[in-house]
Specification:
D-Maltodextrin-Binding Protein, domain 2; 2 domains
Length: 319
């Protein structure tokens, strides 16, 4: 009788879980972003939120939680109920987790839903800068170590990692000033407070198009179709320089797999639409979707050592 009772209890639990997944979502979903409004993460999040809202027929509200290289947002996700009503959009978390050793969470606390987009970083200067091309920057930086001020979007951010790799490949050393996000870093370039900036495309594309800043190169060997008119690093004079970044969706690790798959299906359907792809393309980003949540998790784990190594190269330490 005890075995039979246990069987029926398990069956009832499975039925309840299935019913819960089928009813999902029954209330608005929060989409957390680890950086301030105006940066690339915020731009991508708002496009994704719109498409998820349409696909799930439920409001998806963007919630900016900037700070600590995105770790405040990761911490909020780790503490959230694993019910599919709190989702994070972010670049891979390995760099910020490698930087901040005393976090109350680890990568085991999260599950991937899908990769959303991939993009390059632009090397930019003020429109009135004496640096007309990338070679000018490299030559000056070699002759004047640490005399160029680099505006960075914060330790562990994609612009930070792109600048670290640039220094390593070019054999130069900047003095990097860390800002709260990409928008704030770019404002310092506009104001003339700093001389060079590694910026994600969505943060600066409108400024590049309007001529308010000058883009010297993208962070890939070849030019990016999403960033027309800007040379690739090889053509610009730095062969061997290759850095890309991407955004994905994450949930707490214990989120029921049926709900994770529902979110994945909604994200893929929504972001596959021409309108959504064009919105990201206008911001210099390519829509790149994962075949499954499991495939996305596999990609994230495989890329973590490369990103962690860039943190080691940078020498950055945050207590």
């Amino acid at each position: 009788m005890k075995i039979r009772s246990a069987f029926f209890f398990l069956l009832a639990a499975l039925v309840a879980l299935e019913a819960s997944a089928q009813a999902y979502p029954s209330r608005p979903i929060k989409l957390i972003v680890g950086f301030p409004p105006g940066g690339s993460a915020d731009v991508v999040a708002r496009v994704v939120a719109d498409e998820l809202s349409r696909q799930l027929e439920m409001p998806v509200v963007v919630d900016n939680k900037p700070g600590a290289g995105g770790n405040i947002a990761w911490d909020a996700l780790a503490k959230a109920p694993a019910d599919g009503y709190t989702v994070l959009t972010s670049t891979d978390g390995a760099p910020s987790m490698a930087l901040y050793k005393n976090t109350a969470f680890s990568d085991k606390d999260f599950a991937g839903v899908s990769r959303i987009s991939r993009g390059t970083v632009l090397v930019i200067v003020n429109k009135d800068s004496a640096f007309k091309n990338l070679k000018d920057v490299i030559d000056y930086a070699k002759a004047n170590p640490e005399k160029l001020f680099n505006a960075s979007a914060g330790y562990g951010s994609s612009p930070h990692l792109a600048s670290v790799l640039f220094e390593s490949v070019a054999g130069v050393k900047f003095t990097s000033i860390q800002y709260k996000g990409g928008a704030q870093a770019t404002q310092s370039i506009l104001a003339g407070d700093t001389q060079v900036n590694f910026a994600t495309a969505p943060t600066v594309m409108s400024l590049v198009r309007s001529g308010r800043i000058r883009a010297l190169a993208v962070s890939t060997p070849e030019p990016s179709p999403s960033v027309p008119g800007v040379p690739g690093a090889q053509e610009a004079g730095l062969p061997g320089y290759n850095y890309t970044f991407s955004f994905g969706l994450y949930v707490p690790a214990a989120t029921p797999r049926d709900i994770v798959r529902r979110l994945h299906t909604a994200a893929v359907k929504g972001m596959s639409k021409a309108e959504a792809r064009e919105k990201l393309a206008s911001q210099g980003m390519d829509t790149t979707l994962s075949a499954s949540p499991e495939e996305f998790d596999k990609e994230v784990r495989a890329d973590a050592p490369r990103l962690e190594n860039l943190i080691r190269i940078s020498g950055a330490k945050v207590e």
